[in-house]
Amino acid sequence: MRKIITMFALCSFFLVGSAMAMDNKSQDHATMDHSKMESMDHSKMDHNPNQDGGTFKQAVMVDGIHAEFQVMELASMNMTDPEGRTHHVMASFMKNGEKITKAAGRVKVISPSGKEQLADLQDFGSGVFAANFTIDEKGKWGIICLFKDTEGKHTAKFWYHNAMM
Q: What is the pTM of this model?
């Protein structure tokens, strides 16, 4: 009889534990249809850790300068561009732990289909520089920033994946 009660208690423990795990709505995988997941091609999915709440962030080291970029949808910032551009590319630069406040530069964006746009970085003060672009195609966009500070010219490059369409 003791063995039966012990066995019943263990089975109940495992049964309740697995039922609680399956009912946990805070875990994304608990509500997924795993039979469909097995047939999905995960290699084509973009798991971008740099995308945060509609803002894409990228850091690039170039010539000892830490360049930080953010690509944001103007609409998500409740902003509009007089020429109808859709995205804001913002940059800031640091060297030896100090913000570079005097710089000039240009940004080129290249669409997945090969169209290019070029804009001068505007100085917004406090070491923040930015330019607006029309990003209207889904896929990988090349972003190239050419900038000049007191020590010379520098080039930073990265990819921005536009999946919002």
A: 0.67
